[in-house]
């Protein structure tokens, strides 16, 4: 494979993977899950699942990408054929690409909400508004298919433009400028939150824990979150791994990705809870934490319109660097398999995701209740799609762990893992036994929810 399909520098994969990892999962999902699950207790089990399950599978998925140097679908075909193992393993590639397609379709709609809030805050429209007004503003947004559709279209178009420009000019070029800028914005928001908010209360909430807060539900959510936040099981990491320099260390890179991702989630958590507690509100608000509770805090605080607007720019940017990693696996496959030009492949992928995204757009208004989807599945189309990906992620991760842990030979793995053998043994143990058992457990617990 030509050097054209390798990242420019040894460290570019790290940059790209961090761009993929840091997103709505860190800024929106992690804080509200922590809030719902009692704070410090959740963070403790989350850190454990990242270390024992997330990092080993992250190494495995990167390894599969780099060993094949192809898009996930073609890569798994190549690995199984050259290895002479069952074609059933190719499910990893197909399911990853399908999951990336589905996730992007709703990720884009939710990221679009942040565009609306950037505008709402900068315009000063929310300054001094009371909590009913702000709660109603969220309802108005969700109730409007036109608004949701506009933002969804804008967001997915932006991701397509970046990926369409290629992995060097488009993906690398945008990440090299966006990642430092986003980190700077996070520092500014954190500094502001510490000054005007209640950082002490936020730290106590996040870093002290009661054993009685540990629940089975919390474990399951922590495991799901560690997959989502590290972008695992969706072909994104495999697709980026295909372009990774052969010299970079798999273990060291994966640990760095997980550390940066966790650090950013914690910084976002401190900032958000300092603001929320400073405004005298509660942590356990669920998904509305970012879109209702936080805007209420910003409305109340000095300089809140400007800083709130800046915060939502951070949300849009972080979501964008994740979205491009969801476009890549399918687009790269279309290029490889059908010889499409990259711009055409990206257009096909983005148009398809845009259309599928309509299901999510209408789930919050015209199909909110009593639709065909409720009749068929007992839930909205968005809930069905989210549920599907919640199954595909652990199954994909399980298969990746089993394939890398059991199907590949020691020689094949050591060709990629040129670090020392002690880490190899630790990784192999985790990826063979601990990760599959943990994921299978989560999976078996998710299945009964099909009824609900
Ligand atoms: N890791 C991203 C986040 O935390 C979400 C994501 C999942 C991105 C899978 C790409 C692939 O928001
Ligand atoms: Na993340």
UniProtKB/TrEMBL annotation:
Membrane spanning stretches: 12-30, 42-64, 92-115, 148-167, 179-202, 222-243, 255-281, 301-324, 344-367, 387-408, 429-447
Stretches of the chain forming a coiled coil according to its record: none
Location of the protein in the cell: Membrane
Keywords: Membrane, Symport, Transmembrane, Transmembrane helix, Transport
Keyword check for Ribonucleoprotein: no
CDD domains: SLC6sbd_Tyt1-Like (cd10336)
Record GO cellular component, one term: membrane
GO terms assigned for molecular function: symporter activity
Membrane-topology descriptor: Multi-pass membrane protein
Family under the similarity heading: Belongs to the sodium:neurotransmitter symporter (SNF) (TC 2.A.22) family.
PANTHER family assigned: TRANSPORTER (PTHR42948:SF1)
Name by which UniProt lists this protein: Transporter
């Amino acid at each position: 494979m030509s050097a054209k399909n390798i990242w420019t520098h040894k460290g570019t994969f790290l940059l790209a993977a961090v761009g993929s990892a840091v997103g709505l999962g860190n800024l929106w999902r992690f804080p509200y899950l922590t809030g719902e699950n009692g704070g410090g207790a959740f963070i403790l089990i989350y850190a454990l699942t990242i270390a024992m399950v997330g990092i080993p599978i992250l190494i495995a998925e990167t390894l599969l990408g780099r060993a094949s140097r192809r898009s996930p679908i073609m890569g798994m075909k190549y690995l199984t054929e050259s290895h002479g193992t069952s074609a059933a393993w190719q499910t990893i590639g197909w399911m990853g690409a399908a999951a990336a397609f589905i996730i992007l379709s709703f990720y884009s709609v939710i990221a679009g909400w942040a565009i609306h809030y950037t505008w709402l805050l900068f315009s000063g429209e929310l300054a001094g508004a009371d909590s009913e007004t702000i709660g109603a503003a969220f309802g108005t947004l969700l109730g409007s298919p036109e608004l949701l559709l506009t933002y969804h279209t804008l967001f997915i178009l932006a991701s397509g433009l970046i990926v369409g420009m290629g992995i060097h000019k488009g993906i690398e070029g945008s990440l090299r400028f966006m990642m430092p800028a986003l980190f700077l914005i996070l520092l500014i928001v954190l500094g502001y939150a510490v000054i005007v908010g209640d950082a002490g209360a936020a730290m106590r909430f996040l870093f002290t824990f009661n054993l009685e807060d540990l629940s089975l539900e919390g474990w399951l959510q922590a495991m799901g979150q560690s997959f989502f936040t590290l972008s695992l099981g969706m072909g994104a990491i495999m697709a980026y791994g295909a372009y990774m320099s052969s010299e970079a260390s798999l273990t060291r890179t994966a640990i760095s990705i997980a550390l940066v991702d966790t650090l950013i989630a914690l910084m976002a958590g401190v900032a958000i809870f300092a603001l929320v507690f400073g405004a005298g509100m509660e942590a356990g608000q669920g998904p509305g934490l970012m879109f209702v509770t936080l805007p209420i805090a910003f409305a109340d605080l000095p300089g809140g319109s400007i800083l709130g607007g800046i915060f939502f720019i951070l949300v849009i940017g972080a979501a964008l660097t994740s979205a491009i990693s969801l476009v890549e696996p399918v687009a790269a496959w279309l290029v490889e398999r059908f010889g499409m030009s990259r711009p055409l492949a990206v257009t096909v992928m983005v148009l398809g995701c845009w259309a599928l995204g309509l299901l999510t757009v209408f789930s919050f208004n015209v199909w909110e209740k009593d639709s065909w989807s409720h009749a068929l599945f007992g839930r909205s189309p968005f809930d069905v799609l989210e549920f599907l990906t919640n199954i595909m992620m652990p199954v994909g991760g399980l298969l990746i762990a089993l394939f890398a842990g059991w199907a590949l030979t020691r020689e094949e793995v050591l060709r990629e893992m040129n670090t020392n053998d002690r880490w190899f043994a630790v990784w192999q143990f985790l990826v063979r036994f601990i990760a599959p058992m943990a994921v299978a457990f989560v999976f078996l617990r998710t299945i009964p929810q099909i009824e609900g």
